[in-house]
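Quarterly update from the structural biology core.
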Amino acid sequence: MRNAGVAMGQVEKQRRKPWPAELNALIGLIAIMLIFEIVGWSLVGQSFLLNKLRLSIMITQVAVVGILAVGVTQVIISGGIDLSGGSIIGASAMIAMSFAQIGTYPRAIFAAQGLVDLPIIVPILVGLLVALMCGLINGALIAYVKLPPFIATLGMMVSARGVALWFTKGQPISFPTNAFMSIGDGLTPVWIFIGIAVLFSLILKYTLYGKHTYAIGSNQAAARMSGINVERHLMLVYVIASLLAGLAGIVLIARSQTAQPVFGTMNELDAIAMTVIGGVSLSGGRGSILGTALGMLIFGVIFSGFIFLSVDAYYQNMVKGAIIVGAVALDQWRQKRQARDA
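Predicted structure, tokenized:
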């Protein structure tokens, strides 16, 4: 009888499978949108959801951080953390913009060297090269020197921000070519994010890279025993995350038509919050790009809604902090529940 009871309990647990975290994020997104819609009609007398311009601005703004979040998602799934993404955006943006300036601007950074009016591919490659160097350093420190990811990427966060400030002594860089600005035209940043998100969603789901990433995040020792080159793979994960941060920086300056050394500040925390809200576990081994995309939309809706309701920016930052803490608390609760039901 006791064995039968245990067997029935196991069957019952199998039947009571938890909802996917992505479904929870989707329900939360719909609920938040409906709340802003109701409050909008009550306090402002306007619709929040039926304004196409507002929604297009919202999704374009969060798409840049969304590109960064795709890389952060892979890092967290592998069991790590990356605090350097926002600073890599700043460093890549400043140096890339210096190679994207027009020749008619007399104060162009490299006007004396004739490096103006360059083909669009040149600033893109330069920005990605800067990000690649940062990713190689992060990966080497974490995979081979065995520094904790928090410490290694924290150091890169400070160093890359220093590079962004040093490059022009804190001054902005502007006047890019029309070809370069086309990267940020209209909804182009959104399409870039969608392309990146779909690509890495398929990679994580159907390739050895994805399987190894989940395996390392779930149990690094077991992954090593199964024949996975953990160090090499972690190196690749952090390089990809940095390259996506560099791409986000390029898209950001093309959209802004200027590069500021403070660009990307705190974006790394936004990206982490987006991933956790979307169901990516901070302990590693679980999560998806789809969940991150839903977390990105939740972030965008909340802050677009605050602007819609004319909520002061100071309060927005307070709420952002609460969201980050709440997302981590939700992740901890989710892990405990799964451990209890296992």
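The CA atoms of residues 143 and 313 lie 39 Å apart.
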